[in-house]
Write a structure and sequence with these properties.
three-stranded antiparallel sheet, alpha+beta, homotrimer, about 130 residues, 3 helices, Jelly Rolls, five-stranded antiparallel sheet
Chain lengths: ~130, ~130, ~130
């Protein structure tokens, strides 16, 4: 099990971790198998999406804020209930394939830590299994 | 493959199954590996979120109801289309890590069955693989 | 690693791929294990839901469109930002169980490619591992 460390810089941000995940795959020495990612936080998750045009990330941020606005009847005193909800919407675990010692991703796909309550230091756990 | 049985008590509820998943991991005798969870229902899913302050669960319930209200143009005659939609939003499968014979979870993370059409008896399938 | 090819026929569609996934499981010759699915696109994802009453799929389409309407402040010039956002909401990977050489699914569950920017030719990658 390896660990990726991320320092997010905005309150909400899709932070591209594709290079770090690729480095973890290479460090494992496994050529064919599966790469599991796990985010141990409750106000940040993991998602795959386009990493070519940065405006896609901008637009996803608008969507998330529109989906989960603040509400006066939220009870959680920390005030970050929208971040908790967005995390359950994108999810906390991903399973990727490894072939030829590299991640198998679509042409436009990148792996993102989805920060919903930053800026913070975040961790992503990575495990690569042969098969 | 093991099975966790859950009896939910409300129409919508985040039911903490962390202790049962931990028990399934221990029963497997596997120290290092991966724990897969699968929910075989179409109106209940699985999610990770904070299990310390119960008000987080309350607020997530408000969010889910706000995201998927009932609509007069729904065609599914059983009347539970919002529960089907919420299930696709949170998802039906999770992958967790196992280390030292225990689930690897963040400090505030718990594993929840997300009931969207209860109260009902629900099942969660668990498989632990070494690696 | 096997590949399922899908030709979607509508702009938005839940396309049932359960038979193709089952065929891939059978072709693997693995009786007990795990079946991973991965969608390498950024405007289509994967989800599990009811495959018996087609009106569930109709209603989910209404929900997705209601959740992510077009917005004048979207910046992505291709105009398909809602499709990107819906993909992150349902997710791009699924993990299913295999037992007795067959997928383990609930009575009403089917596996769907969730097309959000069709019609297009899409691919789903499948890997089956014993365990």
């Amino acid at each position: 099990m390896r660990q990726i460390e991320v320092k997010t810089e905005a309150h909400q941000e899709l932070h591209d971790i594709t290079p770090q995940v690729q480095a973890a795959v290479e460090a494992s020495g496994i050529a064919e198998g599966v790469c599991y990612l796990f985010c141990p936080h409750t106000t940040a998750g993991l998602t795959l999406n386009e990493n070519w045009d940065p405006s896609v990330r901008h637009d996803l941020g608008l969507v998330f804020d529109n989906l989960v606005p603040h509400r006066p009847d939220f009870r959680h005193r920390e005030g970050n209930s929208p971040a908790h909800a967005k995390t359950s919407l994108v999810g906390s675990s991903l399973t990727l394939f490894v072939s030829g010692g590299r991640l198998v991703l679509g042409s436009w796909q990148g792996v993102f830590l989805a920060e919903f309550d930053g800026p913070r230091r975040r961790r992503v756990l990575v495990k690569v299994m042969a098969g």
